[in-house]
Amino acid sequence: MKEGIHPAYTDSVFTCVGCSSSFTTRSTSAGNITLGVCSSCHPFFTGKHKLVDTAGRVERFMRKYGINNESGTRSNAARKGK
To answer: What is the CATH number of the domain that holds 2?
Structure first.
């Protein structure tokens, strides 16, 4: 590697805003770094996924395009663009 062209690789402290945990690792960014979400509080890593209610969106789509839930066909009013 060439000398003098690479940034300094130093110890940095990363602090999570969500759960207030912190850890030290090495980085080219010097000083304290704040994170929005870390592996200690992220839903993917903790297994506490939040379910998003999409039933309202699907029902609104069905009403908008006049699709019947049973057969999946459109009504006459929806076909004419009304």
So the answer is: 4.10.80.400
Which pTM value belongs to this model?
A: 0.46
d(CA 61, CA 44): 29
27-37 pLDDT tens trace: 988 788 888 88
pLDDT at 69: 63
Domain count, the chain: 2
Q: Within 10 A of 48 (CB to CB), how many other CB atoms are there? A: 9
pLDDT in tens, 53-73: 556 777 788 888 888 766 556
For residue 20, the enclosing domain spans 1-48
Angle, CA of 30, 33 and 34, to the nearest 5°: 175
Q: Provide the residue type at 2 as one letter.
A: K
Q: How far apart are CA 73 and CA 53, in angstroms?
A: 24
